[in-house]
Amino acid sequence: MAIKDGKDYLYLIWKCASNRRQYIVGQLTKNGQYEFQYCEEITEALKVGFTPLVSFEKLEVVYKSEKLFPVFASRLPDRKRKDINKILKKYDLEEYDSYQLLKKSGAKLPIDNLQFIDPILNYESSFEKLFYVAGARHYLGCDGNQCKEAIQVTRGDEVFLKHEVDNPHDANAIRVVNEQQKTLGYVPRYYSRAFVKFIEEARVEECHVENVSKENCCDECIRVVIKITELKK
Questions:
Q1: 28, 102, 214, 218: least CB-packed within 10 angstroms?
Q2: Residue 203: phi, psi to the nearest 5?
Q3: Rounded CA separation 143/88 (Å)
């Protein structure tokens, strides 16, 4: 799904600390060699505080490398860690593959607001997408520190997507609600435009909670899985 023109794509997302908005600032591709370049929302991100990465200071350059760029590889767990097999199992990997680990883990670090995501590039095929619900702490009644007292969410619960056409901040905003119509959070902004299209085309086949980990950080509390059917022509 993230393969286009023979290239495997990942998007680099930056979350602004002041407005909490997520910006698509770069793309990493793999096709024999690795390429990185800034894209899409880099101009908007620069206006609200994003600083170009030290290894990629020029905005217009397409950087190339035969190996995964060290600045990205350094975000991954060391392959010599004693618990590396446990980490690989968590991401359904049988062996250490730095690019696949980058794709599946997102390579988030506590020292910055960067992460990689697997983008939606093919809008017509059927597929399954897993992601963490955004903004859960604001809607579960926990405020990020009363997790056990939060709205009860259980693995397997059916959830529903509601397009907020009149949302003053984002016309593509999509709420994730449970059967009681309680808001659990939102579809991450970098996927919302695609999901507006899927909702309009009535292609959302299934949507449920895949995992709940209240001991995790608020950005990784509720993970949902959504199945999209193939576009009928």
A1: 214
A2: -110, 5
A3: 31
